[in-house]
Amino acid sequence: MVSMDVTIVNVALPSIRVAFGATVSALQWSVDGYTVVVASFLMLAGSTGDRLGRRGTFQAGLVLFSLGSLLCSLAPSIATLVAFRMVQALGGAMLNPVAMAIIVNTFTEPRERAQAIGTWSAVFGVSMALGPIVGGALTQSFGWRSIFWINVPIGALALVLTARLVPESRAASVRRFDGPGQALVVIGLGALTCGIIEGPRAGWSSPLIVGAFVVAAAAAVGLVVAESQRRQPLIDLRFFRSATFASATLLAILAFSAFSAFLFLNSLYLQEVRHLSALHAGLCTLPLALAVIAFAPLSGRLAGRGRARLALLTAGASLAIGALALTRMDATTPLPWLLGAYAIFGVGIGMVNAPITNSAVSGMPRAQAGVASAVASTSRQVGATLGVAFAGSIVGSAMHGAGSVGFAAATHLVWWLLAGCGVLVAVTGFASTSAWAAATARRIAYMLDEPASRDDDDPVAVAP
Questions:
Q1: Exposure pattern of 184-216 as b/e (b: 16+ CB <10 Å)?
Q2: CB 391 within 8 A of CB 292
Q3: β partners of residue 459
Q4: Which residues lie across from 460 on neighbouring strands?
Q5: DSSP run (H or E) holding 365
Q6: Directed axis angle between helix 179-202 and helix 369-400, to 10°?
Q7: pTM for the model
Q8: Residue pair 251/352 in contact by the 8 Å Cβ criterion
Q9: How confident is the model over 149-188, as pLDDT tens digits?
Q10: What ranges in 3-150 are assigned the alpha helix state H?
Q11: C-alpha angle with apex 96: 320 to 108, nearest 5 degrees?
């Protein structure tokens, strides 16, 4: 539910725009309001689950997510929809990192754990890819509000199954709440997103936009300073001394920036330029979804067998080729060409997710699993936020600035940038799977593992 709700809204955006008379920036906020909040609170949720109990935190997240979904379905305006999306996102933030920590602490044998993580990552990627198809079918059949209704019965069922099947677990050592760190994360991400989204409308040199970027930069610097001085920080900066963990963070931002920008622009292009219905626009993403379904499990198996490099090189090449195929897109681009590009791009998304998760928790002590996986999940959401923000702003500036062009032509620069993201995914993937990177991960795992727990709390080795 959580990962699908990152993408399911995209195909309903034109319907929401008509229903509320929303601007492009308002549509961006309906997507990014969700991802910003998820990104802001994932790390807090991960540490809270480690401290108070993962099953209980997971159940609380299910309740809040389902309530937020119900409120979204009843929203009377675009402003209230954005607000209710943020409520929904608070629940979503409590689910993803805690789910990963539950998996890590339930499956203690390394190979078994790697397979479980691969399965979880595949479900995450597949659900994101299916979002536009499910959203298109529901929007066409029952209206855009139905994309939120569907979460309520699913959330209720998940709540019952969690109570019956998921064992309770918590970390041996209790992490303290880091209020300053949490506040700086929220301020920094919110200000950065606001500056990018509102820049084309307010003007990039306006006091509002300049001030937003200054606040974001100050928050980032303040976060580094504050976290380096705390004994139990929200973000343990030592994690980033592990080349595999730092690479996982960068890979997540690059890949999910590309994915979210891709879905945001193509949903608008297919419905507002090609004049397809919501259902047909969703069905056009079927090649992408099928590619993710086919390749995500393969990626999980490769990561579990220690062949993450092959998965990441394939992912980077596929993302770059798929984006390059769209750099000449116009209102009459042949549909088979578009579908082929979507399929190639889907191979890249399917292959990238499992290695990200695998690298993020590889070598980490189980007591740190919630926080480590939360940082990786946060990176995905930050990427999704930035992708929509930058794509919308670039296209909006091209359409309404000097020498304005049509929507399809305005997207060309975005596709070139996404191709560059694919190249960077391949380069980063190669470096992160080197012997040097593995050595840094082992050193940091030993540093992070508390001496008293090293006899019974082994590092999370997710590859044989």
A1: bbbbbbbbbbbbbbbbbbbeeeeeebeebbebb
A2: no
A3: 365
A4: 364
A5: strand 364-365
A6: 10
A7: 0.80
A8: yes
A9: 989 999 999 999 999 988 887 776 666 777 888 889 889 9
A10: 4-7, 13-20, 24-52, 54-73, 78-93, 96-106, 110-142, 146-149
A11: 100
